[in-house]
Amino acid sequence: MANTAQAKKRARQAEQSRIRNAGQRSNLRTFIKKVTAAVESGDKEQAQTAFQTVVPVIDSAVSKGLIHKNKASRSKSRLNTQVRANGLKSTKFKKRLMHFKVSAFFLR
Band of the pLDDT at 86, cuts 50, 70, 90? Predict the structure, then answer.
């Protein structure tokens, strides 16, 4: 337990930050799930709209220090690949995409 006033204050600030970050992280995951759900439903327009909505949310998470910029870039790239594959009828491209297991991988 914290003994000094400074340590007590830092403990309070850390707890507030943890709670705030948990909410923002949950919000980020919700937006990502909306994109994957739209892709799985097969609705191309809804998937594109959800993707355009999630990109600023991901960028905002980077600026707040919630996730690393490389993770954000990787997430946007994989979501974009999912959205683009949704519109294609090429089974070869879709099979290659399935090897990534995108939704299971980055919603951990």
Answer: confident
**What is the C-alpha to C-alpha distance for residues 33 and 21, in angstroms, rounded to an integer?**
18
Domain residue extents for the chain: 5-106
Under 8 Å between Cβ of 66 and 28? yes
The matching CATH number, chosen from 3.20.20.70, 1.20.58.110, 3.30.420.10, 3.40.50.720, for 5-106 is 1.20.58.110
pTM (2 decimals)?
0.74
Which residue blocks in 64-90 are alpha helix, DSSP H?
Answer: 69-87
Helix axes 69-87, 91-98, angle to 10 degrees: 150
